[in-house]
Amino acid sequence: MSDKKHGNMLINLFNELKKIQDMVEEYSPADDKSGEEPEDKEDDTAEDVIKVKIRSLSLEKKASVSEIKELGYDLYSLLSSFGDSREMGISKLKLDECVMWAIKGVCRGD
C-alpha cells in the first residue's frame, strides 16, 4: 500500500476517533469535570441491570483485587513453565475463571 493511502487511512481513523471522543464528551455529565469516580448508591446499582454505571471501590477492595490478580499471575506463570499440554491449558482456563469469580466476589462485597 502506498504512503499516500496510509496517510489517508490514518487521517480517516483520526477523524473517526475525534467523532467518538466528541460523542463521549457530549453524553458525559456536565457537572462532573473533576475526574473523580462518583460514589454510587445501592439504589442506583439495583436499577442498573446492564451495569452501565461503574461502582467505585474502596482502597481495601482495590488492594484485594490487586493481590488476587498478582497471585493468579504467579500461578499462571508457574503452570506455563510445565508446557502446553491439554491439561495445562484447561488448568490455566480454570485459573482465569477462578480469578474472575474471586474479583467479582470482592467487588460485590458478599
Description:
The protein has a domain at 55-110. Helix 3 (59-80) runs antiparallel to helix 4. The relative contact order is 0.07. It has helices at residues 3-27, 42-47, 59-80, 86-108. The protein contains four helices and no strands. By secondary structure, it is an all-alpha fold.
In short:
This protein has 110 residues and is an all-alpha fold. The chain has 4 helices and no strands. Helix 3 packs antiparallel against helix 4.
Summary keywords:
110 residues; flat; 4 helices; 69% helix; mainly alpha
- What structural class is derived from the secondary structure elements? mainly alpha
Summarize the main sheet. none
Order of helices and strands: HHHH
Low-confidence parts:
none
Strand portion, in percent?
under 5%
Rg over CA atoms? 21 Å
Shape: flat
| DSSP helix fraction | 55-70%
Total number of strands: 0
Number of helices: 4
* Mean pLDDT across every amino acid position: 76
Distance between the termini: 55 Å
